[in-house]
Amino acid sequence: MTGPHDPIPPARPVIGEAEIEAAVRVLRSGMVVQGPEVAAFEQEFSAVVGDRHCVAVNSGTSALHMSLLALGFGPGDEVIVPSFSFAATANAVRLVGATPVFADIEPGSFNLDPDAVAAAITPRTVAIMPVHLYGHPAAMDKLVPLAERHGLAIVEDAAQAHAAALNGTPVGAFGVAACFSFYPTKNMHSLEGGMITTPDAELARHLRLLRNQGMEARYQNEIVGANMRLTDVAAAIGRVQLGQLEGWTEKRRANAAFLDANLSGVTVPPVAEGARHVYHQYTIRVRGDRDAFQAGLKELGIGNAVYYPTPIHKLKPFLDKDGNVGDWKLPETDRAAAEVVSLPVFPSLTSEQLDRIVEGVNTVAAKS
After folding, report:
1. Average pLDDT of 115-124?
2. Does domain 17-240 have CATH number 3.40.640.10?
3. Residue 92: which H helix or E strand, with range?
4. Alpha-carbon 133 to chain mean position
5. pLDDT grade for 217, boundaries at 50, 70 and 90
6. H-helix segments, 156-289
């Protein structure tokens, strides 16, 4: 039990009795890796992404890496990505030997700006990797036609956007591949895990080979593969969580609506027309000294975090050979990295906690 004045964490993963019972059930079965639970999880998750083929893997990063591998991208190829994201987005591009090309973001959604993407396309561009950051869908209504005009693949990084949608189409149903994460802090989890979705049956089969040492039947290796399998224990937990996703999503959206209506002195996250934001993070922009703002909230017991303080193009692995940032012009990315703060929005927040968040933010913002 928590009291009315206990600190409110920025996120609270759910591991309930149903998840524990599911894990124990699988452990007792003796079939714990790449078995019936994985197959059932894939089938059930398909309903979230417009009945696409689903391939479960051991992490969201593996999902991104495998998707690019299966599509045959490598040295000499360029993939357009946002810099305002977690490093895994660009890491996956580098892992296959391709080059991440950073494009700027829209000021509202924090997602790739289609105009910036268009300006970044070169003869070496093979794909666009939009990130549906914080649970807000990227501008797929513009990015998909852009990709089609230039003959580019779209690989969605949907790690934070389970059940998000744009104009009625679910995230994960736009690209040739889409990648979800089931890390514990995500809107649903499997302790650790990922899912790749695709409309292409042959690509799905290739992904299944890649995740399992290149074989479908034991010892009948068809390609060079790896071990990126999901365990049945993780899949069983994921299935329990998936069954609660819709209810949790609506609670997140209701919590966000309450914050939207009551916060002052900060910029609340806008939602694009036709977008279903699922609020993996509720991310505001603050004015003035962000460090002081965060410290003020912490003193009041209100958890908060910055995702992401350093754009990817400024991280050490992505600097040039001389250790310099390079000639990237990403003003909206830099502005977002300097202004954002994410507040608690998780489904189990109580009305009293929501009131505390509002009172705390408004009080601290008034002093900024």
Report:
1. 98
2. yes
3. helix 88-95
4. 6
5. confident
6. 201-211, 232-262
User: Chain centroid to CA 263: how far?
Assistant: 25
245-367: in CATH 3.90.1150.10: yes
Q: Please tell me the distance from the alpha carbon of residue 207 to that of residue 201, in angstroms, as a whole number.
A: 10
Per domain, the residue ranges of the chain are: 17-240, 245-367
What average pLDDT does the segment 62-76 reach? 98
SS3 242: helix
Residues whose CB is less than 8 angstroms from the CB of residue 169 and which lie 6 or more positions away in sequence, other chains included: 50, 140
* Tens-digit pLDDT profile for residues 275-285: 999 999 999 99
Q: What is the pLDDT of residue 3?
A: 54
Q: Which of 111, 114, 179, 202 lies closest to 150 in space, CA to CA?
A: 114
Q: CA-to-CA distance for 336 and 344, rounded, in angstroms?
A: 19
Using alpha carbons, select from 343, 218, 204, 205 the residue that is nearest to residue 269. 343
Residues 6+ apart with CB under 8 A from 291: none
Question: Sorting pLDDT into bands at 50, 70 and 90, what band is 1?
Answer: very low
CA distance 234 to 41: 10
- Residue 4's pLDDT band, with cuts at 50, 70 and 90, is low
Inter-CA distances, 185 with 189, 190, 191, Å: 7, 10, 9
